[in-house]
Fold:
Amino acid sequence: MIVKIVENYLELSRLAASMVTKEINNCKSLVLGLATGSTPEGMYAELVKQFKAGNLDFKNVITFNLDEYVSLKPEHPQSYYYYMKRHLFDHVNISQENINIPTGCSNDLYKECYEYEMKISKAGGIGLQILGIGANGHIGFNEPAEALSVNTHLVKLADKTIEANSRFFKSPDQVPREAVTMGMGTIMHAEKIVLLASGTGKSEAIKQTLSGRLTTAVPASLLQLHRNVTVIVDREAAALII
Ligand code: F6R
Structure:
């Protein structure tokens, strides 16, 4: 794992965006795995800036998002579909048919999970996967558990995740209790992974992720088995590793 410690959130966002830009510009076509949440917002803003400056072309980019809440329709302001439109897709030249986000509203979520996994496979797998990390060490919505799932699956959100994500909703009861998420295998099969973490709230999770020990109690710790992971952390998130 390569660990890059940067001064602050702005630097983290710029560095992450420059890595994505480089990958898009160096590949004929790229399958890009995307995350939502607060952490990558700055990276998306920077990517939009690069696109507007003419440095970036999304024509040959296919995206797959990590996860989506169960029960939120795409037009719900807290759905990850809505988030992606607001932060990236509405501002760049990506074509609609190249955008993939799991549906949390299907009548058959098991089928949805299977089909999502197949679609990633047919696209040739993820080339570059962007990840955030939960304070509890989750990646995607692979929550700490005795056993983790390999493929895209339906998951019950951890109480800590519901509590953390309640900041985006009017009240904690409005946070969906379940989500569809790529599995640990889906993520681990990505050719390259960039994990972003900002703020003191993530420092313990980052320490555990880089600890040299693997445990399903910290799903991100499994990334230590991957050959091409770059962890970009700001000083606050790096507080317990420096
Ligand atoms: C979101 C996702 C989650 C978030 C994590 C951190 O698509 O997969 O793993 O990356 O919950 O969220 P923030 O960035 O809001 O702290």
